[in-house]
């Protein structure tokens, strides 16, 4: 999904992922801004990547729920926008992740909240 969205990971470390997305014309709604479905796909992808940073080799994760607050709509096509996700709480089986999408000028386009289920690697 990251490839379809053009999400380019800039930094990834345990519990945190930063990336860039360049809004393309295909992402636009009839009003010339990014369609809400594309925005939620960005939120799902960036929170999933943050969850993945918590898994060990062979481990898996599953996003259990995702909520998003649409604050503004970035233009499509338009300049790069920044996607950021950070784990705010992680236990052995569950993690809570917050994400946001912002412009270079600090404009916040969305805030998202996700819970992820973490699965340890299984030995076959």
UniProtKB/TrEMBL annotation:
Q: What is the name of this protein?
A: PaaI family thioesterase
Q: Which Pfam families match?
A: 4HBT (PF03061)
Query: Does the keyword field hold Hydrolase?
Result: yes
Q: Where is the Thioesterase domain?
A: 31-108
Keyword annotations of the record: Hydrolase
Sorted alphabetically, which Gene3D superfamilies does this protein's record hold?
A: Hotdog Thioesterase
UniProt cross-references to InterPro entries, sorted A to Z: HotDog_dom_sf (IPR029069), PAAI_dom (IPR003736), Thioestr_dom (IPR006683)
